[in-house]
Design goal:
alpha+beta, five-stranded mixed β-sheet
């Protein structure tokens, strides 16, 4: 069997990047939450998804969360929320980036030439491991999940 790894290492990289972005001006307008960092999966998958996961987090920071004034005008708290989570669910490992930004914010940028590569790379990697990338845009939030078959389940 393949060695197991915890997603915590990849999640910690996201937290470090977020902290660096906060120092560049995000601190007053974002909250970052992590759930399921102890979720285990094949170590090769953990290593493979780290970069695409970083793209998904940056997409949320750069394109998913509205400016504080726009959020206030829409009746939302001025601080946006970004959640990074991992879990085992019905034979699938779900690694999700969720924000409470305006739905559909990413679509125009993702359709321009040279843009949207983070989503495309994440989808390619998920497919290469027998999984898929699922994008769910609903009123007041966007969630992008990498769903992978859970060969061994939680240990």
């Amino acid at each position: 069997t393949s060695p197991k790894g915890r997603i915590a290492k990849a999640f910690e990289m996201m937290k470090v990047a977020f902290t660096a972005d906060k120092s560049a001006g995000w601190s007053a307008c974002m909250q970052f939450h992590i759930e399921g960092a102890d979720t285990e999966m094949d170590k090769s998958i953990v290593d493979t998804i780290a970069d695409p996961l970083m793209h998904l987090v940056r997409n949320s920071l750069d394109h998913g969360i509205e400016a504080p004034a726009d959020r206030a005008a829409a009746g939302k708290p001025t601080a946006g929320k970004l959640q990074l989570s991992a879990r085992h669910e019905a034979g699938v490992i779900v690694i999700e980036v969720r924000d409470d930004g305006a739905p559909g914010t990413r679509l125009p940028a993702a359709r321009r030439p040279g843009r949207g590569r983070g989503l495309a790379i994440a989808a390619e990697i998920a497919a290469g491991h027998g999984g898929e990338l699922v994008v769910d845009r609903t009123q007041g939030r966007t969630a992008v999940a990498i769903e992978l078959p859970d060969a061994g389940g939680p240990e």
